[in-house]
Specification:
586 residues, alpha+beta, 6-stranded antiparallel beta sheet, 5-stranded antiparallel beta sheet, 24 strands, 21% strand, elongated
Length: 586
């Protein structure tokens, strides 16, 4: 997906309507390459989201709530210094360029009025957010580009800002539909999609695909005939009409698993089954929805990379250790053979002599009384060989008992680390990460947090079922223990995926009898438990549920680990859309 210049044009119009004349009251930098500007005043109240991430560059009005970092980065502090209180004067977009200039009327350090510009360049891996002074000189940027990174265009403090090199393409904003259609035809070499991308400025691959779908109807053409040229001119004319009239149709395409695949300002028709389209009122709502889950995952992955690395390292080491211990346990399974050999040697000492390398004796433990060959150490006496077999048996017997305990401990630790990993994948804010770090520090996996770093535990996720019942979901193992062992009442109902790491889920019953609760409430609570687990998009997931009074925590058990009895099981399919609909404060 690419946010093309045409979509950006409508984004600019939305920003003008929502924020023009407003002042910046807050500046937050969510990650290294993402900013949120809060605008208010003069009838304005909105937030602008700016991203220079290579995989998701964009600019738009957002309705999402974001958790602010505890320590603002240096670029954020710079923007706060220069832009806080600045009034948005204009929103400019060079013709068919994926660049937007936000002009602000600000005040200098000595109180003089100055005009500063925030340039948002939406250009894939070359995307950037640049603060420009009055004389066009760069104050600073999210990404500094020196000569070693680019010999064409550098972006460094103090340098004069320059637009990226222009491309030799026709603009749909200025060219006639005949000229635009002819430019595409001139580039046509059997692939209309490629020809449109080469000829027209500011369009994304999905728009080029829509042109090809409308003109060619899925056919492979060697040349554009009169009918195809007529359709090409008609489609380009419609595109220009949408731009002139300002009537976009913000559309998102979802794949067969309901995951976002692409988006555009057009109503897309090129995607067939199993894809489906979803429409939105504004481009801002479209971009919010499209990037919501992807952004959260990317942001948390950046901030929790060290924890993911630690857990993966510990997990791999434990898995290797368990594999070696299980192999040793298999070797111990043959220990009784040494006891039998010892008995046979002890009963036949009179037949043996020192120096023998082996002996064949009748096995009176076997119903068939067959002979067995017993290896001997020629340096030992017959009695010493018998004692050696007994020692080997005792050693393996002791090893088996210890190995079973060590394997059980290792498996418990592995299960625990997998539960922490699952919590990390679903963390949505820095407070969640801080709690997980605190949990790992308590178990000795990481150093304890500095005393000055304050963690603010977030409330459990809350859902309201269609039958009116409330469901609470733990965000991590510490909160799972708090929710199950302290918050929940004895008559509430506990849910958890069977043999799969996941959140503790509590269905609050208010004392209502277990049998009186509707089946739909059980099903929806089980779906919430399956969705908030490592099960992911599995087709069928087993979910155990029981009354909270049946839940016990073993002594010295790790956070989140409990045992239970008298449980039932339900088989459900995880459903993120249902969870989003039932969510109360997530």
């Amino acid at each position: 997906m690419a946010l093309d210049a045409l979509s950006l044009y409508f984004v600019c119009r939305e920003i003008e309507q929502a924020a023009l004349g407003g002042r910046i009251t807050k500046v937050h930098q969510l990650s290294k390459e993402e900013l949120v500007l809060t605008m208010s005043g003069a009838g304005v109240g909105c937030k602008l989201f700016l991203s220079a991430r290579a995989d998701a560059p964009r600019l738009h009005v957002t309705r999402q709530s974001y958790q602010n970092p505890q320590v603002p980065p240096m670029f954020c502090m710079l923007l706060r210094k220069h832009l806080t209180g600045g009034k948005l004067l204009a929103v400019r977009q060079p013709d068919s360029e994926r660049i937007v200039f936000l002009d602000f009327a600000c005040t200098s350090e000595i109180g003089d009025p100055v005009q500063l510009t925030l340039a948002c360049e939406i250009m894939g891996r070359h995307s950037n957010i640049i603060l420009i002074g009055e004389k066009g000189r760069i104050i600073d940027s999210v990404k500094r580009v020196d000569l070693s990174m680019s010999s064409v265009r550098q972006v460094l403090p103090g340098m004069q800002y320059q637009l990226p090199p222009a491309q030799n393409k026709l603009s749909l904003f200025t060219a006639s539909r005949e000229a635009a259609a002819q430019a595409v035809a001139d580039k046509f070499d059997g692939d209309l999609h490629r020809a449109a991308m080469k000829a027209l400025a500011g369009i994304s691959p999905v728009v080029a695909g829509e042109i090809e779908h409308y003109v060619c109807h899925g056919q492979k053409l060697d040349a554009l005939e009169k009918d195809q040229m007529d359709r090409l001119r008609f489609f380009i004319g419609n595109l220009q009409a949408v731009l002139q009239q300002g009537t976009p149709a913000p559309t998102m395409v979802l794949d067969g698993e309901k995951a976002p695949k692409d988006l555009s300002f057009l109503d897309l028709a090129q995607f067939g089954y199993p894809y489906e389209t979803r429409h939105f009122e504004t481009m801002g709502q479209l971009l919010d929805s499209y990037y919501a889950e992807r952004d959260t995952y990317h942001r948390m992955k950046q901030k929790s990379g060290d924890l993911f690395g630690l857990i993966l390292q510990k997990t791999e080491r434990i898995q290797r250790k368990l594999a070696a211990q299980r192999q040793e346990l298999l070797d111990c399974a043959d220990r009784d053979r040494y006891r039998v050999w010892g008995d046979l040697l002890s009963s036949s000492l009179y037949q043996l002599q020192k120096g023998q390398k082996s002996v064949r004796l009748q096995n009176y433990y076997s119903p068939a009384l067959e002979e067995v060959e017993i290896p001997l150490d020629p340096r030992l006496t017959p009695a010493q060989n018998a004692q050696h077999c007994y020692k080997k048996y005792k050693k393996l017997d002791t090893a088996e008992k210890k190995l079973r305990g060590l394997i059980e401990q290792g498996q418990q630790e592995l299960d625990y680390l997998e539960s922490v990993f699952d919590s990390l994948t679903r963390a949505t804010g820095e407070d969640d990460l801080a709690q997980i770090r605190q949990e790992l520090a308590g178990q000795g996996y990481v150093k304890r947090l500095h005393a000055k770093v304050k963690t603010r535990p977030r409330d459990p996720l809350k859902f309201v079922l269609d039958d009116g019942y409330t469901v609470l979901v733990g965000r991590n193992n510490l909160q799972n223990d708090q929710l199950t062992l302290r918050t929940a009442e004895r008559w509430d109902i506990w849910f958890h995926t069977k043999s799969i790491p996941g959140s503790h889920v509590i269905l609050l019953t208010g004392g209502e009898d277990f049998d009186a609760i509707p089946e739909r409430a059980f099903t929806q609570a089980a779906i919430i438990a399956a969705t908030h687990s490592k099960a992911g998009p599995a087709a069928q997931v087993a979910v155990d549920y029981t009354l909270v009074k049946n839940i016990k925590k073993p002594p010295a058990a790790k956070p989140g680990m409990v045992i239970f009895d008298q449980n039932y099981s339900a088989y459900v399919t995880p459903d993120r859309a249902l969870c989003d609909r039932l969510a109360a404060n997530t």
